[in-house]
Design a protein that fits this description.
The protein is mainly alpha-helical and 587 residues long. It has 25 helices and 8 strands.
């Protein structure tokens, strides 16, 4: 009993504090996690500032959001590589929601954003606690692959302007960005292009010849030294520039009822968008790392990160495609890398912010291009195209939606299509005619084997619920129409794992309808779950206890011996072993 109590306590502690599952590994992986964290911290410097400006917040709030939520989500989430922080989609939603209620960057605006973050976090946490994370299991890998591929292209295209040293403002859509790039490409900046090329060469070279080295970090350091030593930062090469040096201060959201009521719809939208993004990104990286993602735990992790972040000057966050990709590509092994990234970022802002100011944006763009390329799973894409038309269509639609629709809608489009196709499949379970194999007792589906003129066998492959029953009825009728003289039909139910009330009522109605026509329906190999529902509903009395069998052998012995012996004597086929006994009895 004592051992069981200890085991129960350990399981409970692991669920309440997920970091206990990996914390002991840090002794062996801390060096890799430390370097991966440094790379991620450098990459997020310009991103955090840019995303804060998109959200209508002061620049430093983007950096706060890259610190606090990243740590909390790493401790309480399930992904080993997901990095949380500010994202484009959520930043845009925040600005469009709160800017109509207060002046962007004002004190009231910041309080409302903190409230919006708190509400979204509470909703995400609640969804995880009530175990609704399983909803994302309906989103297939094809959705994740299509979304990842589209997002990778969007990320890459958005960085091309920095690679070429162009100074136009990125548009909201893929096609507009491509048009802007085409219109401005003739104004490229040579030094920026050289820095990007050098960074790419260093990163790719290290990957091929010294794969264990932190190639991305070395590439950015080489670019920074090149830019500073040659003075190119004075000749038009864009750099990160001076950043605010501060530690995230405590914040107090506006908790008035009026504000809560006004922000509720947007909070739900941000909560759903955030968890969909986070789980999709976590699963896309997990496809490469081979890790299993617990959706409920990710819901809880994201919810807690936003709840804590709301009181630590961090606005609504989610998983970051770029930072998560950089984290994985840089060799991170545990979520400790996310904690290291937050610590490095704070260190940079406090102590070495002046040196980081010379880091070229073109170099960071080159690193992000490599990350975007790594996000595309070419092997899985080719395999999907060759093996499944349905998965290919899901992947293709999600990919196109990611490129040409808003990013959050692309996830919903892919998820909705995936769920619809899944429901369509489950609503059409196969009903197969079965006959014994002449060389054995196994049942097979073979239209060329002879059928008994009095007794037919079918097998239903799928659950019987309200959406499937019309299809099942039609299939049974269609199969019986090929041999209408059969007045006894055995239905094998071993592959039926669930039946609802509508399914039970439909089965009873079919039994009664066929019985009026002089046809008896029998059932065998019902699972305990299905049998319990049939008994509880009272359908067993309608069907008849003598019409339900535990096995095919028991059903054959009972049914075949009770067919019309005269017809058996005239029959030239011996479909069942029991047919010989029937002929002997008749003679």
């Amino acid at each position: 009993m004592r051992v069981d109590n200890i085991r129960y306590c350990n399981v409970w502690l692991s669920k309440a504090f997920p970091f206990l599952k990996w914390i002991h590994e840090v002794r062996d992986t801390w060096r890799l996690d430390l370097f991966a964290g440094l790379t991620g911290a450098v990459v997020v410097l310009p991103q955090g500032v840019a995303f804060a400006m998109i959200a209508g917040m002061p620049p430093q709030y983007g950096l706060y959001t890259a610190m606090v939520p990243a740590v909390i989500a790493a401790l309480f989430g399930s992904s080993r590589h997901l990095i949380s922080g500010p994202t484009t989609a959520i930043s845009l939603v925040i600005f469009s929601t709160v800017s109509v209620m207060a002046e962007p960057s004002s004190a009231q605006y910041i309080k409302l954003v903190m409230l919006l973050t708190l509400m979204a976090g509470v909703m995400q946490f609640a969804l995880g606690v009530v175990n609704l994370g399983g909803l994302v299991d309906f989103v297939s890998h094809s959705v994740v692959t299509g979304f990842t591929t589209g997002a990778a292209i969007l990320i890459g295209v958005s960085q091309l302007k920095h690679v070429f040293g162009l100074r136009y403002k990125n548009a909201a859509h893929f096609t507009e960005n491509m048009k802007l790039l085409y219109e401005n490409i003739s104004h490229y900046h040579l030094y920026s292009l050289i820095i990007a090329a050098v960074t790419l060469a260093v990163v790719i070279g290290i990957r091929n010849f010294r794969p264990k080295w932190p190639g991305m970090l070395i590439g950015m350091l080489v670019a920074g030294i090149l830019n500073y030593s040659l003075g190119w930062y004075e000749k038009g090469v864009l750099v990160i520039g001076a950043l605010p040096s501060a530690i995230p201060p405590l914040a107090l959201p506006d908790l008035s009822f009026k504000s809560i009521h006004a922000l509720s719809p947007s909070a739900m939208a941000i909560a759903m968008l955030g968890i969909m993004e986070a789980v999709s990104i976590a699963r896309s990286v997990a496809l490469k790392s081979g890790q299993n993602i617990e959706a409920n735990q990710e819901f809880i992790g994201q919810g807690l990160s936003n709840i804590v972040g709301a009181f630590m000057s961090s606005y609504a966050s989610s998983g970051s495609f770029t930072r998560s990709g950089v984290n994985y590509a840089a060799g991170a092994k545990t979520p400790f890398a996310a904690i290291c990234a937050a610590a490095w970022l704070m260190f940079i802002l406090i102590f070495v912010v002046k040196f980081a100011a010379y880091l070229p944006i073109a170099a960071m763009a080159a690193v992000i291009l490599v990350v975007a390329y790594n996000l595309i799973d070419f092997h899985h894409i080719v395999r999907t195209i060759h093996l499944s038309k349905q998965d290919t269509s899901i992947m293709g639609v999600t990919f196109l939606a990611t490129l040409f629709l808003e990013l959050e809608f692309a996830i919903y489009v892919g998820a909705l299509l995936s769920i619809c196709l899944y429901l369509n499949k489950t609503a059409r379970p196969r009903v197969l005619p079965r006959v014994p194999n002449p060389t054995g007792r196994q049942f097979v589906t073979d239209p060329y084997l002879p059928q008994c003129s009095q007794f037919g066998i079918m097998r239903i492959e799928g659950d019987l619920y309200f959406a499937a029953m019309n299809h099942v009825q039609k299939q049974i009728s269609a199969i019986h129409s090929y041999t209408p003289t059969q007045n006894k039909i055995l239905i094998i139910c071993s592959n039926i794992n669930f039946i609802d009330l509508m399914g039970v009522e439909t089965v009873v109605n079919v039994v009664k309808e066929y019985r009026r026509k002089g046809i008896e329906l029998f059932f065998c190999k019902l699972t305990s779950v299905v049998m319990a529902i049939i008994r509880k509903s009272g359908a067993l009395d309608e069907i008849g206890q003598d019409h339900i069998f535990d096995s095919e052998e028991e059903a054959l012995r009972e049914i075949v011996t009770n067919v019309n012996k005269n017809l058996c004597h005239e029959c030239q086929h011996r479909v069942f072993w029991e047919c010989d006994a029937n002929k002997i009895l008749e003679s």
